[in-house]
Amino acid sequence: MIRGDRIFGAVMIVVALGYILSASSIQTSFMSDPVGPRIFPYMIAAVVILSSLVMVLRPDPDQDWPAGPMVAQLGLALAVLVGYAYAITPLGFILPTTIAAGVISWQIGGNPRRAAIAGLGLAVGLFVLFRVILGLGLKGLPAGMGF
């Protein structure tokens, strides 16, 4: 795992540098805020680079890879996140986020009822944060169903 951590860390540094390069080409209008639209991608890239440097310089000792049921759970989580990425545009933010957060909460170890409540709470809370507080143009529900 030591070698794997170092390889992954190096690859993520290259990806983060590409992200910075891509973010540097974001066009700014004359009416943008003083910080500009590039600062958030730069901050994300900086965190990725710092985390990747830690993986390269201080990798974890060798660990056993997951097997059997754990691989199936990881596959389910991956499928849920890919489905979430495809569903968020046509279905809005709240429904896909509720489902994805609920399934992943259930996988972490919650019972299904509490996971569903957590998923709904997370979806509504994040929607309020993004739409109301941050003022992003986020579609909450599918077209024609409301906000």
Automatic annotation (TrEMBL):
Ranges annotated as spanning the membrane: 7-27, 39-57, 116-138
Superkingdom field: Bacteria
Pfam families per record: TctB
Keyword GTP-binding: no
Key word Iron-sulfur present: no
Keywords for this protein: Membrane, Transmembrane, Transmembrane helix
The DUF1468 domain, residue ranges: 7-137
Protein name (Swiss-Prot/TrEMBL): Tripartite tricarboxylate transporter TctB family protein
Organism this protein belongs to: Paracoccus spongiarum
